[in-house]
Amino acid sequence: MTALRRHRALTRIWASDTGWKGWFTTVSHTDLGRMFLAVAVFFFIVGGILAMLIRAQLASPRSAFLGPEHYNQIFTMHGTIMMFLFAIPLFEGLAVYLLPKMLGTRDLAFPRLTAYGFWCYVFGGSMMIFSLLAGVAPDSGWFMYPPLSSAIGAPGINTDFWLIGITFVEISAISAAVEITVTILRYRAAGMRLSQMPIFAWYALVTAVMILTGFPPLILGSILLELERAFGMPFFQVSEGGDALLWQHLFWLFGHPEVYIIFLPAAGAISTILPVMARTRLMGYGWIVAAAVSLGILSFGLWVHHMFTTGIPHMGLAFFSAASTLVAVPTAVQIFAWIGTLWQGRPTMHLPMLWLMAFFATFVIGGLTGVMVAIVPFDWQAHDTYFIVAHLHYVLVGGFVFPMLAVLYYWMPHVAGRTSYFNLGTVAFWLIVPGFHGTFLLLHWAGLLGMRRRIDTYGSGQGWEVINLIASVSSFVMAIGFAIVLIDVVVNAVMAVRGARDPWNAGTLEWAMPTPPAAYNFASIPRVTSRDPLYDTPDLPVQIARGEGYLGDCARGRRETLSVDTATGEPRYITVFPGNTALPILMSAITGVFFLGMLLKAYWLVPLSAVGVIACALVWVWGLGRKETEGRIPAGHGLSLFTAADVPDPPGWWGSVFLLLANGTFFGSLLFGYAFLWTIAPNWPPPAYVDAGTGGLLLLGGGAALILVGTRLRPVWGLALVLAGLAALAAVCAGLMLRAPDPAAHAYDATLWVLMGYALLHHLVVALMLGLLAARRLAGHAAATTVGAARIGRLWADYAVAITLVAATAAMLPGLLT
Amino acid sequence: MESLSTVHPAGPAAAIIATLWWVLLAGATAIFLFVTGLIVWAWRQPEGQRDARGFVIGLGLGFPLVVLAALLAYGLVVGERLLPRAGPDVVRVHAEGRQWAWRFGYDDAPGHRTENVLHIPAGRPVDVAITTADVIHAFWVPRLAGKLDAVPGHVNVLRIEADAPGRYDGLGSEYNGRGYRDHRFTVVAHDAAAWDRFLREETP
Ligand code: HEM
Ligand SMILES: [Cu+2]
How remote is the C-alpha of A566 from its chain's centroid? Predict the structure, then answer.
């Protein structure tokens, strides 16, 4: 088969549907990556327009342009959009687009999940935009502190838009994180060891795991606050045993890692682009990986530095202050490794490099002011002033937006397959960077002169007027620069000429394909033996196109790729991907109805749409099954492998493991919140604690045993035992809820309901999963093709048993101790 | 002019924090210049294999560890000095924030209540017991001390002190909704005689 015939055959297999239909049925990571990026840029523009409104309002004292009602919505939505609808999705889009190409595979681990996440992002984001246009946008600040955001402080629907809309959007973050993790661990070029991965993949891996462990506290907090607002369950109401500080802990348990979730992908891009621009290889690869991992871990121990003024005891302050300064160390390791890379190479000043220089100049300042506010006494003065506003923009714009502009100019030739005219880009650079520093540098000083953040206007005489005028004028210069970047992108996409395949002479695999990339990425999957395969094997692209790698034979007419061993990258099995389908968009639309039902308090919609989501999920999963085993099939180079349907650890098992990691973090955060209320909240103990009684305990133990045994028997018979066990556990949970019949009475009762509700939800999920498994066997699926599914079911069943036992014990514990 | 400035301190707490700031600024400027210097220098010297240990271990690990250890020690010492420790001449007052006003009470004159004006004696340490009647607020007199939050159900104690008699502007400095901009108050520091007179007065 010639390279061209192979290209045609593979394109037929992998192409998205043509015409407008293709937008809604595509599951291709290339398409969805681009769509993610485009929507994220759209939200950057919206957030940017809001920023311009803020700066217009603050340009002069006593401005009457916007009143507090509008101003409060605008700054809240600016922060919310930039953090949740721009920065995180932009990373997701970048990773979705780039990772399979860099890793040498043909798509992400769960193509339909990519699409589902994307549409959840679009629908959730649309809810937020709608609230803005309708003038009912959230207005309690992007960290939504109760009681200001509670029913008392914010009776309108504004806050509900935030809690429900953002939670909806977070589905996309969690699903992207699961599949990024599984893709990096199991979908790479043959022989690509972990230590040979492109450095960006390491950063993406750390970031994805951080999303899995960082977002659940926020999702939990949002659910609790919405339950409080909608049903009066008093988690944050001090008079009924709640505590407003619980929200702050949950929020910042997410919020601080969030900052690194935003920075690390940018650092990954810098580590990729900088060595190419300096015509050398990255200095200290191992050190950088270690730094990224330790940054990820450390960032979970710092959240309290956002709460230095809430009255934390002195010892606590000292601990969190030390931990906060300590994160500067892994950051410094990376910065100096990059500088060392510059020193050992012959740096050139192409546009991506120019943006990396802007990154250094800006981010270093943001890092230094970050160390300043980590020193508690200084933070007591700087907190909630424009010093913080300036600091956070130095970090976020310097540490994310500027590197992303480097990313834009570095990979644009890849996405568009053309070379660019850089003149416009350079002009934009010289407007944006000085404009940025003009906007924010002096605002540090305004903060020290006592200018609080979030005030809608100010009087004269405090020395703030000139600073604010300079800031506003500069911000418009910066905005013009961003507009020119947009024009530049459009001009390049429409007019520029087709360029060389690897214009920067880079070594990573995404440049081993023709650009714009074909739907299948690689005509055959290469074998890789080093970190920069293109440097060592310059004619690798030709070998790939000629089908000399694995799976170059497309005779089976379906979308296939290799799953590899996590550590060594040796091929383990063949994954067959699903084709184009509208199921993801349908399922996310129904998910949207679920959230809409809660938002509009049309609660009858909630169970209805839940049934719809379950139905979609069952169709989705059913399609993965195969009746007969296919046996080993040839993968090229004399290797024959099973397909994913025949193996005990299919992608779904790996996906479940990481989804359960996020789920377990959610449960852990719930237990943390419970312990916090129990020990810290002023109005405890509650009037009464619940107790399941001896009968309940027996039921609990018996149910757990039945499930553990049942999942280890053959599916159809085992199912009977499992269902009986689940019924027993569910009965205990429901019984405990009935003993505290009013969840609005005290935070303890409310927490009990959430703990038990969480367990009941898992009982339902496990019943559905194992029911599906049994149905497959009854439909005649061979035992060999259900091993993987059975293991997935067992994983979830074990988890459900564990959390039920822990939740029931936790609910009864305070009663037993008193 | 500059009645809200943290860098024009009028009391011991604000003064040591202002000094801390100038030290931080000097150190940060030096580090920034050093790092930019290293980057600029990369263009001005011949390429060649570099010792990764010098950059990564020396500059990446060693340098920040030393600087941060010193800084942290300094920060902790300053923090110690700001603590509200018991003493013979400490005055205790109460501040209760609400949307959008402040109400103050005095241990030494239990019947006294003042609205949006806090009276204190100059030259004596004052402990402000801060709480709230509704949402979260923060109590901040920039020229006297740092800020501390008013959290529902909790009482936080902040030590402030004014060196000299006079009026000092105070702010609610935690965003609290529509009236946030004008959530302010005044601290009036009295000399000893005036303070005695204030304590003996009837509630205004
Ligand atoms: C493009 C130029 C930008 C300008 C001129 C700008 C301007 C501002 C200003 C003036 C505020 C303070 C509003 C207030 O406290 O009243 C603010 C807040 C904020 N900005 Fe930006 N910003 C920009 C970009 C960004 C970006 C890229 C991000 C994040 C990736 C971001 C995240 C935030 C956040 C989180 C807040 C806090 C919102 C709150 O207090 O609830 N900004 N911005
Ligand atoms: Cu933080």
Answer: 22
Q: Which of A78, A397, A484 to mutate to test the pocket of ligand 1 (most atoms within 8 A of CB)?
A: A78
Separation of A389 CA from ligand 1 center, angstroms?
7
Tokens of A125: 């984001």
Mention every residue, 6+ apart, whose C-beta is less than 8 A from residue A597.
A603, A604, A605, A606, A608, A609
Mutate to test the pocket of ligand 1, among A52, A256, A393, A452 (most ligand atoms within 8 A of CB): A393
- Please tell me the distance from the alpha carbon of residue A801 to that of residue A797, in angstroms, as a whole number: 6
Q: pLDDT tens digit string along A396-454?
A: 999 999 999 999 999 988 887 666 665 888 999 999 999 999 999 999 999 999 999 99
Domain stop point among A495, A520, A549 = A495
SS3 per-residue string spanning A468-481: HHHHHHHHHHHHHH
Q: What is the pLDDT of residues A646-678, one digit of tens each?
A: 999 999 999 999 999 999 999 999 999 999 999
- A710 at the B interface (CB within 8 A)? no
Does residue A317 line the site of ligand 1, with CB under 6 A?
Answer: no
Closest CA to A85 of A139, A28, A133, A36: A36
Residue A306 CB less than 6 A away from ligand 1? no
Q: Give A139-191 as a 3 state SS string.
A: CCCCCCCCCCCCCCCCCCCHHHHHHHHHHHHHHHHHHHHHHHHHHHHHCCCEC
How close does chain A come to B193, measured CA to CA in Å? Answer: 31
Is residue A744 included in any domain, yes or no?
yes
Q: Are B175 and A384 an interchain contact pair (Cβ–Cβ within 8 Å)?
A: yes
Q: Share the mean pLDDT of chain A.
A: 93
Q: Does residue A575 belong to any structural domain of this protein?
A: no
The pLDDT confidence band at residue A692, using thresholds 50, 70 and 90, is confident
CB proximity list for A559: less than 8 A, separation 6 or greater: A13, A14, A106, A107, A520, A576, A577, A578, A579
Q: Is residue A660 part of a domain?
A: no
Interface of B with A in 132-161 (CB under 8 A): 134-136, 138, 142, 145-149, 151-154, 156
Decide if B73 contacts B83 (C-beta within 8 A).
no
Q: Whose CA is nearest to atom 7 of ligand 1?
A: A51
Strands (E), A458-605: 559-564, 571-577
Q: Evaluate whether B192 touches B121 at the Cβ level (below 8 Å).
A: yes
How are the residues of chain A apportioned to helix, strand and coil, as percentages rounded to the nearest 5?
70, 5, 25
Nearest CA-CA partner of A597 in A606, A589, A608, A586 = A606
* Burial degree of B130 (CB within 10 A; 0-12, 13-18, 19+): buried
Q: Do B79 and A238 touch (CB under 8 A)?
A: no
Task: Summarize the confidence of residues A274-285 as an average pLDDT.
Answer: 93
Q: Is the pLDDT of residue B204 over 50?
A: no
* Cβ <8 Å between A365 and B32: yes
What are chain B's domains? 2-81 (no CATH), 91-200 (2.60.40.420)
Q: Is the CB of A46 under 6 A from ligand 1?
A: no
Directed axis angle between helix A402-416 and helix A423-448, to 10°? 160
Range of the domain at A709: 685-817
Where does a domain end: A495, A528, A560?
A495
**Cβ neighbourhood burial of B13 (10 Å; 0-12, 13-18, 19+):** buried
Q: Do B147 and A309 touch (CB under 8 A)?
A: yes
Specify if A259 maps to a domain.
yes
The per-residue pLDDT for range B125-176, each reduced to its tens digit, is 999 999 999 999 999 999 999 999 999 999 999 999 999 999 999 999 999 9
When divided into structural domains, chain A yields a total of 2
The structure's pTM equals: 0.96
Closest ligand 1 atom to Cα of A44 = 27
